[in-house]
Amino acid sequence: MRVRVLFVCLGNICRSPMAEAVFQHMVDEAGLSEQITVDSAGTGSWHVGEKAHPGTRRVLAAHGITYNGRARQVTAADMADDHTYIIAMDQSNLNDLQRTWGDHPRLYRLLDFASQAEVRDVPDPYYTGNFEYVYQLVEDGCRGLLAHIIQAEGLRTSSH
Ligand code: 4NP
Predict the structure, then answer these.
(1) CB contact set of 101 (below 8 Å; sequence gap of 6+)
(2) CB 139 within 8 A of CB 22
(3) Which residues 6+ apart lie within 8 Å of 61 measured at CB?
(4) Do 39 and 6 meet the contact criterion of CB atoms below 8 Å apart?
(5) pTM of this prediction?
(6) Confidence band, pLDDT 50/70/90 cuts, at residue 158
(7) Catalytic residues
(8) Separation of CA 13 and ligand 1 centre (Å)
């Protein structure tokens, strides 16, 4: 069975596309791309169809990661699948998801999986402009999330 992971932020142009790209990169490196599907979406619809924010694309490129996704909004189908890991970037995203769709058995905040970060909400670089700091937090959270999923789902990694 494939594991599905959906990263969610407000606009789906800054934080959740960054998390999607970083996590996909880690999944590929672990040889798990056949077992884990990665996606992202926004709770809001303002930026649907747009490319990721230039700041997100720039910081990903600086870390050797390409990303070509386009923004989309969270759908009922996303939230109807109890097996999808829904990973919110901050408490406000999590509250918005719960308010609209109710409780979900695999709804988490990304930084609940982080081991280094001193914060639990990924700050929005759309307002702060600090994309590199956000990258460091996202990487920390994604590393912990992947370890969690590998263990919880009993996946076997292959090193390259
Ligand atoms: P994101 O950042 O949720 O990390 O994609 C934002 C992008 C756009 C807006 C807010 C946050 N906006 O209000 O348009």
Answers:
(1) 74, 76, 79
(2) yes
(3) none
(4) yes
(5) 0.97
(6) confident
(7) 9, 15, 124
(8) 6
- State the Cα–Cα distance between residues 109 and 88, nearest whole angstrom: 5
* 74 contact partners, CB below 8 Å, separation of at least 6: 6, 8, 41, 42, 43, 97, 100, 101
pLDDT digits (tens, 9 = 90+) for 21-51: 999 999 999 999 999 999 999 999 999 999 9
Catalogue all structural domains in the chain, each as residue range(s) with its CATH number: 3-153 (3.40.50.2300)
Alpha-carbon dihedral 113, 118, 119, 124, rounded to 10 degrees: -100
Burial per residue of 87-112, b for 16 or more beta-carbon CB atoms within 10 angstroms, e otherwise: bbbbeebbebbeeebeebebbbbbbe
Q: Is 126 in the pocket of ligand 1 (CB under 6 A)?
A: yes
CA distance 160 to 154: 19
Compute the distance from residue 31 Cα to the ligand 1 centre, in Å. 32
Q: Which of 56, 59, 124, 131 to mutate to test the pocket of ligand 1 (most atoms within 8 A of CB)?
A: 124
Instruction: Let me know how long the chain is.
Output: 160
The two tokens of residue 136 are 């460091």
